[in-house]
Known about the structure:
With 79 residues, the chain is of the alpha+beta class. The protein has 2 helices and 5 strands, in the order βαβββαβ.
Amino acid sequence: MTLDGFEHETAARIVAVNWAVLAEDEGKRLKALGVDEGAEVAIVHRGIFGGRDPLAIRLGRMTIALRRSHARAIEVEPV
């Protein structure tokens, strides 16, 4: 399952990231923030308009905003 379809406030572990679908600079930024295989994440907020963009995710002690297109490139499993 991809991160964009995961349930709100449920802990998940990143099992794979499809770096090929992300622009190079976006991938570098996400890696620098710690978005990579093995990291634990949870969706803490979804946008309220149209496509429900952006998503706010908790990654460790940080909360970061992701576009849904980025979240679709991240495969997760429940913890």
